[in-house]
Amino acid sequence: MVVNARPLSVASIEEAAEELRRIGVEPYGVAAMAPKMLNFCLLCEKIESRAANIMKQDMLSIGGDVAVSRGTVDCSIAVTDAIVIGTIKQIERFAEKLSLQPFGLRSISEEIRSALTNIRTDSFTIKTPRRDIFLGRRTLVMGILNPTPDSFSDGGDFLNPEKALDAAIRMAGEGADIIDVGGESSRPGAQAVAAEEETRRIIPVIEKLSGRIGIPISVDTTKANVARLAVEAGAEIINDISAASLDPEMAGTAARLGTPIVLMHMRGTPSTMQTGDLSYRSLCGDIIGALAAGISRVAAAGVAPDRVIIDPGIGFGKTAEGNVRIIRRLRDFKVLGRPILIGPSRKRFTGTFTGVETPRERIEGTAAAVTASVMNGAHIVRVHDVEFMRRVCDMADAIKVSSL
Question: Could you give the CA distance from residue 185 to residue 215 in angstroms, rounded to a whole number?
């Protein structure tokens, strides 16, 4: 059988452009046609019915469509969510048309244009007080170092500063790009630790480590004063699981220090996050909204956009099914226009689907989650098993890049 026609799968404009160049399309044709090859859906929430009707007609006029709720056409409902369906080229034209329409559609147009710009952005440069960190085709590995007695996987292993130093140096040698030092466990059910105790655990480690390795150190804390002392000791990045919400001084502290800050989504606190109702109206939508609020919060305090990283918070107030859904739809978070960090390492959900109870034995589930995260747009993966996961990332990066 001779096959002269076959499906062509493209996941990005870059992939589409490469296929066009491969068959010899002129450069101007590549630029014009690549956005037409990518089908795309964009969710716009809480749109007035009269505005949604205009959206539908405008998109239909250029060959796409807009899905709306029953009752929108006759305006028997006040608002509706709307799913815009078309190629990226059609949605770009659609945004132009909306910019001329009433009922607040100009602002919707601006949001759509911003979303299109953000989802096309894959590379970032994060500025620390000491260096620029490039995030692009090569996924960075953040090694986890917890000088705590009660972390879920390595609790008690690194309470001795010398052991912690040896572990960090080993991880750097295994291919870690960042070492993340945390003095307060954030496992489900964990109780808060006083700032003085948290500082006692981590500052000697950071002081000893600073200057001994050539890679940046991040501090995993929700407390502004702990973050300040850690940065003074040599840390370059703040990793805040509360997205700078638990300590009102955190955002301003990060701004004054000039350090990047990781904003992670968590519902509640570690002691409460896995109790009660774990349902969401829209899992990814709710997380994106919360992270957007975090970005606005630190921006208002003076943190520059090129110093913000986002983390959807795997395991922090989500079900096992919710965690895998986040990984599957990780590209949705690109709408925020910031690099993505994700931390699935040894977490319970990896054991839920593989039948493994012991955290240290969840390496296969972690590897699968890391691979899927890389393929779906993660820039940094936070892991315990650095050497193994560095190789996993290298393979996943090779597969991902080879498709471009």
Answer: 23
